[in-house]
Amino acid sequence: MVPAVVPGLDDVAFVFAGYLAGCVLRRDASTWCAGFGVTTEGTDAGEVTSLQPVRIGGVGPARAVTGGWYHLCALQNDGAVLCWGNGGYGQLGVATTARGPVRVEGL
């Protein structure tokens, strides 16, 4: 394995590299991710939902992004935290398995 340029990703301001997915924030504060559980559209947890970075709809503008086991979260510029992915164990901060993005209250 050697480092490689990710086609189509330029103007990157922030990088998150997780165990199952990776994300970047571009300078325009848009969130782009690739890997497992990346998209918010009805896929099974653990599916590779995108091998290439995709813009995460409903998220942004953001200033940080992070993730865990089959889920990702973004800190919005207004201070809100939005999470998406598998919420089967409460990872999204709500009592649902919704794919998100959902606003995590109380943070």
Task: Provide structural commentary.
The chain is mostly beta strands. A four-stranded antiparallel β-sheet has the order 1-2-3-4, with no helix packed on it. Strands 5-6-7-8 form a four-stranded antiparallel β-sheet, with no helix packed on it. The radius of gyration is 13 Å and the shape is globular. The protein has one domain. It contains no helices and eight strands. The N and C termini lie far apart (38 Å). The protein has strands at residues 12-17, 21-26, 31-36, 48-55, 62-68, 71-76, 81-85, 102-103.
Mean pLDDT over all positions: 81
What is the β-strand count? 8
Number of helices: 0
What is the succession of H and E elements?
Answer: EEEEEEEE
**Total individual domains:** 1
Whole-Å distance between the termini? 38 Å
Spatial shape = globular
Provide the low-confidence segments as ranges. 42-46
Name the beta content range.
Answer: 35-45%
In order across it, which strands form the biggest sheet?
A: 1-2-3-4
Proportion in helices: under 10%
Radius of gyration: 13 Å
Largest sheet descriptor = 4 strands, antiparallel
Q: What structural class results from the helix and strand content?
A: mainly beta
Topology:
Elements: E1 12-17, E2 21-26, E3 31-36, E4 48-55, E5 62-68, E6 71-76, E7 81-85, E8 102-103
Antiparallel strand pairs: 1-2, 2-3, 3-4, 5-6, 6-7, 7-8
